[in-house]
Amino acid sequence: MLFFSACVVDPPEPPGTTDLVAIPYEPIGYTVISPKGLPTMEIPADNPMTEQGIKLGRHLFYDPILSRDSTISCASCHQWKYAFADKNGLALGIKGRAGTRSSMSLLNIGYNQSLGQQHNFMWDGRFQTLEEQALEPIEAFAEMDNTWENVLVKLKAHPNYPTLFREAFGIKGTSDITKELAAKAIAQFERTLNSAGSEYDRSEHQSGVFLSEEAQNGQELFLGDENPGSLSKDAECAHCHGVSRGKQMFSIAGFSNNGLDSVGSFNDFIDNGFGAVSTRFQDNGSFKQVTLRNIALTAPYMHDGRLQTLHDVVNFYVSGRKDIIHDKILHLALDLPTLNTKEVDDIVTFLHTLTDTSYYNKEEWKSPF
Fold this sequence. Notes:
mainly alpha, Cytochrome Bc1 Complex, Chain D, domain 2, 2 domains, two-stranded antiparallel sheet, two-stranded antiparallel ribbon, 12 helices, 4 strands, about 5% strand
């Protein structure tokens, strides 16, 4: 028995399970340091941040290899110079296919899970985590129109990606590359895209820095009764884009029907938005209350890009909202005040103070190619 056991030879391991082990796996941890005014970012326990994971995610984010015809990448709809959104009313996929909604900004996207909401990502909130969200665009017809099976074949055969996956996640061979690991890497990169260096931030956190009189007037109108002691008219902006519940995110990360469309009932919306996710008919026509940070960089506006400028947006809330009538009950979230031209201008001026272009200098956010 001793002789027999000494001669037993372990069966060969399946092909591809040991072909990367010679590459060092020495991950370096990365800590997200939140800028002043932003909440602490929650990092999933099953996807800790590492420099190698972020590097891999950055490459995948900018690589058109993910799309069926290798013509577009994540960055095609989330361009760094437009706060990681784009200038199209509706997102455009391969072959110029138009989606049904606009591309959302990815700046500060990692904080969405830190605001106490269950439905965190997309206009309709259908994903709870960045990792879940990152899986969808590859297979969406109006986006990359690929399959993860095809993507994985290309990644495994690529001259660089097997090494990057090994360094990021310690895989033993190319057969260990999965869509879940790719999504984790993209999510890690996206959690680094944090911006809070605007004129507003400087006025809040640096001594001797003040907003213009017009911007201060706009801020007073914007905050309204959320600003203790204010004698200003309340433009009601902060009810959906507040700074208290989410610190200074300028979003409460919820969903609202802002009266974009006039319908006879809650069952008549062309796009049900959050209602399709919650399955509550009262939520039909509701969409995510997005952050207003860097909002001046992300025109056109609303979930379908129907409003072209910030003046259009503010004027819409002043006079353009549609009443939603269901069973003879008027459903309006707020009774908005009348604003004069100067007050509208001042609010827009304040919104421009939320723009932070200092991140333009961050080479680590740009394409590595």
